[in-house]
Every structure is written in structure tokens, then in C-alpha cells.
Amino acid sequence: MCVMSLEDFKTDNHHSDKIYGEHEFNEKLEQMVEDNKSKFPIDLDIAFIEVSTRMTKHRAKAYKREGGTYYIRVSEEFVQRESLYIIELTVVHEMVHIYFYQMGYPNHGHDKYFRWVVGQVQASMTRTSTFEQKWRDCIEPFMEDN
Ligand SMILES: [Zn+2]
């Protein structure tokens, strides 16, 4: 009985900062984060990832919370429109932002270091780049090996 209560508490705590409630796509996003964590040399403190029904200007965004953990929101419109493959590349891009935050560089932008790590973990850089024929021809073949 004690174990049950502990589990309940953990579950509630895990979702406490989500403001958009449950979304059928959240589980897939969580899986994408789990699948890509091992590409990074440190443990990324990602408390949760969720679909945002209100995000329109960005495809996704990484945020810092009090206490030094992070979370990611992904636009609902984006997840409805794109393939799982493109969504995952975007999730990994946001994970790269969190990596730089955790390494002590909150104002990194998309500088040359950021772009190097993006290449290293096989994230996407911009929406356009993943659709360009040159990107498909020259970069995608690297990703299929993994
Ligand atoms: Zn970015």
C-alpha cells in the first residue's frame, strides 16, 4: 500500500508543471527524449516534455525551471503536420539547447559550437534545411546508419 502511494505521488509531481494537460502525443515525445539522451556526454535534466496547443511562433522551445531542471514544449500544430522523423530531429535540437544551458552557456544562440553539437547528435538545424534536397541527399544518409 505504501508503494502505491509513493507511485501516485511521483506521477503527480512529474506532471505538476505541465499546463496543457494530457495530450495523446506526449508519450511519443517522452520516448524521443529517452531515445536520444545517450547521445549527450552529460545527463540532461529534462523534467518533462509536452505538446503546447498555443505555441504558434516556434515549432518547439526549451525552458529552464526553478531548481535547475528543464522542460520542452512542442507546438501542437507542428506535431500534427510533420512526420515523426522531423519531429524527433526538432526535439533533439531543443535537447542541444538544454545541453548548453546545463554547461553554463544560457546565451549560446545558434553559434558555431551549437551547430557543431547539432551535427554530432544528428538534430535538425532549421525546418528549411531538413527539407532541402541537398540536406536529404548529403545529411540523411548519415542518420540512417544509427
Ligand atoms: Zn534553436
3D architecture notes:
The protein has helices at 2-15, 26-36, 76-81, 84-102, 112-121, 127-131, 133-138, 140-144; strands spanning 46-52, 60-64, 70-75. A hairpin with a 5-residue loop joins strand 2 (60-64) and strand 3. Strands 1-3-2 form a 3-stranded mixed β-sheet. The chain is globular and about 40 Å long. Helix 2 (26-36) packs across helix 4. The protein starts with a helix and ends with a helix. The chain is built from 8 helices and 3 strands; from the N terminus they run H-H-E-E-E-H-H-H-H-H-H. It has one domain (16-144): Metalloproteases ("zincins"), catalytic domain (Zincin-like, 2-Layer Sandwich), CATH 3.30.2010.10. The model is unreliable at 1-15 (pLDDT under 50). The chain is an alpha+beta fold and 146 residues long. The site of zinc ion has 3 residues, from helix 4.
Summarize this structure as a short list of keywords or feature phrases.
146 residues; 12% strand; three-stranded mixed beta sheet; alpha+beta; Zincin-like
Ordered list of secondary-structure elements with their pairings:
Layout (H helix, E strand, L loop, with lengths): L1 H14 L10 H11 L9 E7 L7 E5 L5 E6 H6 L2 H19 L9 H10 L5 H5 L1 H6 L1 H5 L2
Parallel strand pairs: 1-3
Antiparallel strand pairs: 2-3
The structure holds zinc ion.
Summarize the structure.
The protein has 146 residues and is of the alpha+beta class. It has helices spanning 2-15, 26-36, 76-81, 84-102, 112-121, 127-131, 133-138, 140-144, and strands spanning 46-52, 60-64, 70-75.
Looking at the structure, what is the overall shape? globular
Radius of gyration: 16 Å
According to CATH, what is the class?
Answer: Alpha Beta
**Which segments are poorly predicted (pLDDT under 50) over 5 or more consecutive residues?**
1-15
Helix content: 40-55%
Number of strands: 3
**Main pleated-sheet profile:** 3 strands, mixed
**Number of helical stretches of at least 4 residues:** 8
CATH topology: Zincin-like
Strand content: 5-15%
